[in-house]
Amino acid sequence: MLEVRFHGRGGQGAVTAAQTLAEAAISLGFEAQAFPYFGAERRGAPVQAYARIDHRPIRLRERITMPDIVVVLDETLIPLERVDEGLKSDGIVVINTRLHPSQVLLERESRCIAVDATSIALENLKAPIVNTAMLGAAVLAQDEIPLEAVLLAIRSRFGEKLGQMAADANARAAEQAYELSVEARSLSGLRIDNKAVWLPDWDDLPIGTWLTPDERSGMSIGPGSAWQNPTGTWRTSTPRYNKDKCVRCLRCWFCCPDVCIHRTEDDHVRWDLRFCKGCGICANICPAAAISMERGMGDG
Fold it and tell me: What's the domain range around 276?
């Protein structure tokens, strides 16, 4: 049995990638299954998806804990999640990164396939949706499903939903990733600390919330806890601010969904990039073109 675990963020297409890989396998006569695992269902939040492929009927239904292949759609997840946890001794990590695989730091040394899927997606799809590019790279990690079957599944799925142009663009992204992927051994030694869990005190509960004292132990979230979730690691683009163009209308400050834009004393603005997801709303709403979005995790 071939077991593949996808790590991505909401909006990158991890679930669709798992489903497309399963469809490619089924078209060749394999048994296959694909399903997601969600936490917070919002764009940019970490998600996992799973695909199992076998010659025999698959009776398992649980999450994949010992994958043969791990596909990482966003390299910023590596310091946050144990993406190679449970990877089999001969398993392979396929990662979207500009780094050479020999420069990728994981918890343990592994076979690693690297490809700059974000650049490929931006070139072909005009958006950082990297699932089909990563499928092209993942083909190199196994011998069961050839590239041709994956391309047919991509064309079928995207053509039916989005039309021929979308099908061609996604298939082209997969082909380019297949050709540009590089394999080597990764680095080892990454340490991921256990996250501290914040529990509210009884006095922290907002007015109007009713709980009996016996229910306090069940609380896991509360007011003021958002600062513990640095969503700035989610972005692929960073806002650039031209202070000279700014007319100080403060539309960006008002519309920022993550409240990461702050007013200065002279009614200009600044960004707290620990929480900026790079959604681009501020640039779209600015009437003076004082804000632009540039690829990367820069300083803003």
Answer: 230-295
